Amino acid sequence: MENANSLFHPWMKQNDFQGKKITDADGIYIWIDGKKCFDMASQSINVNIGHRNSEVIRAIQEQCEKLPYIYSGFSNPIMDEAARDVLGVLPNIYKKVYFTNSGSEANENAIKLARMYTGKQKIFSSYNSYHGSTIGAGNLTGDQRRLACEPGQVGFIKFNFPDKYHSKGQFRSDKEMSNFYLDLLREQIIDEGQNNIAAIFLEPIIGGNGVIIPPDNYLEGIREICNEFKILMVCDEVMTGWGRTGKWFAFEHWDIKPDIITTSKGMTSSYVAFGVVVVNEHIAKYFDNHVLMCGSTNYAHLLGCAATVASIKVYKKLNLIENSELLGKLLNVELNKMKSKYHSIGDIRCKGLFAAIEFKDNVMGKRDSVNIAYLINLLEEKGFWTLGRRNILMIAPPLIINREQLLESLNILDSVLEDLYMKGSKPKLAVDESIRA
């Protein structure tokens, strides 16, 4: 094609792009170059309500015909409705929202809000996290995708988030592990100057780096530390929000309420690119008499607001949060059956319809299991598409999936793994160096 090479493709060498095209999508399915596949990653773990939902599409069309855009100095009923609906699925301590165009932009503005509200500058975030690819969000990010933003900006500090599977410590319980990492964080806060720290950013469940679920009491401990040192707790729910983990938001699995929440992805299932920062009543009240130094041309875009309102109606109408919780239990059982069957699976991590299969490393530090890119291609040939990175395979289908569809898709996964490990096929051992998520 004449213009085949005119478009940049993110997170890869451009010559590595395979040229595959999604030619259609519907519900939980996508068609890749004409081949029907289960979309077992909801694209970028964002199309939670499934593809081509007619109600959301109609709402966007109607808003576009009525009034597609206004300057942010004005308001409009659909903006107010979207704000109320977002707050309506959260605990009542949250009082105001700031709409953005992406999750990265939500985190950028959360940084600014935290600094303006507290008057402090330093921001803590964890290694092995991902918060976005823009400069500020990239400085928050702890994994290797931050490297494009380095040398980093002054004031961004990294801490270690507990990872039960990879921990080198011998902990007798979750509580012991949590206390160890909380003590390390406390010491680091004191060393950095407790009066200089505006916020601690974290993913309640680390998403793009493999569904890393914190040990019991850890997030409650973070909340206590933030209260003690008057530091804001910011939960990045860009990937984990909107029913993905079996709750509206992942932080609800624990006895915590962050001061600020950022989210995007499932809010509109990316029918329109949209995100939001949500703040508690204290932060909201502060800006009643202080200038909010945030804004953009496409702030609170009316099409994004319409998509948000319609999407929340779909979540409620189809009971998608409950479906994620219920089928998440089935997903966890079935994946652990595979772990028992295939020795190369090292760990299964699952919360709702959000799961990761991590393949083992051997003692030499090399993956003794299949290259993830190779495995993804084998799965795609059988009608199962998903994402993965390093030695981790992600499983995160649209929340509209039903029991029969979930079991059918997992049978494909099981049969491909059986061909690789039980029938004498020789898996490719080369490590996938892709940083895509």
From TrEMBL:
Record InterPro entries: Aminotrans_3, PyrdxlP-dep_Trfase, PyrdxlP-dep_Trfase_major, PyrdxlP-dep_Trfase_small
Coiled coil: none
UniProt keyword terms in alphabetical order: Aminotransferase, Pyridoxal phosphate, Transferase
Pfam families linked: Aminotran_3
Signal peptide bounds: none
Source organism, top-level taxon: Bacteria
Family: Belongs to the class-III pyridoxal-phosphate-dependent aminotransferase family.
GO molecular function annotation: pyridoxal phosphate binding; transaminase activity
The protein's name in its UniProt record: Aminotransferase class III-fold pyridoxal phosphate-dependent enzyme
Any GO CC annotation of this UniProt entry: cytosol
